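This section describes the prediction task in plain terms. A model, or a person checking by hand, is given the sequence of a single protein chain and must write out its three-dimensional structure as a string of tokens. No templates, partner chains or ligands are provided. The sample shown here is typical of the held-out split.
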Amino acid sequence: MAPGGSWRSAGRTDTGKVRARNEDAFLAQPEKRFWAVADGMGGHQNGALASRLIVEHLAELPHRDDMDQRVKDVRRCLHLLNRRLTQELTVTAEQPDPVIGSTVVVLLIEGDHAVCLWAGDSRCYLWRGGTLFQLSRDHSFYEELIQEGRLTPAQAAQHPSARALTRAVGANETLTLDLVEFTVYPGDTLLLCTDGLYQEMSTDTIGRGLSQPSVRLALQQLFELALNGPARDNLSAVVIRQ
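The expected answer:
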């Protein structure tokens, strides 16, 4: 058993009702206290390739007991993939100036110490004591407009480029990852998900899903609710609980 108790998780990805291809991918390694979700972009096979590369390479990282070293390993892995996606794959792709990239959100836990790293608009939520907290902040034009005080949330939502990403693995030659550290407590439930899931439901609905008595029931309810709606995008999620 891991220090601080064992962790359980359940993950799932779905193409949704509109898209022909699933460009999402997820990683669930509860024995290593290591999880990730990636949402590919670029259309055709490019997005699926980018998200799959991220998940496959993260899955191969060795488990270490030192959190600082684990974070360094994740950073190094994602920076190397960013270089590969922006240089090698773009140069060899058949299309002129193709986009081959992906969002990513990663969660690491060691004892009661948790670290979340991300680039893009895939999110990390914490459900604690009946309250839902969004731990990550989207790297999107919408969020940028609001943070800079240029538009209200309602105005920003109507902007034609609102959903455009300002960061992603493979989007720019330099990758900047955001990081948040926090303490986890017994009873905490965490959710990693792509925008295809959270855009289809309110925060209250997400909270109700995460309040289910097991990670599998929570995941099942979230997907049922999302797929009962328009489900215009691919959707992926991992629910994690101690």
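For orientation: Strands lie at 8-14, 24-29, 34-41, 101-110, 113-119, 123-128, 131-134, 178-183, 189-193, 235-241.
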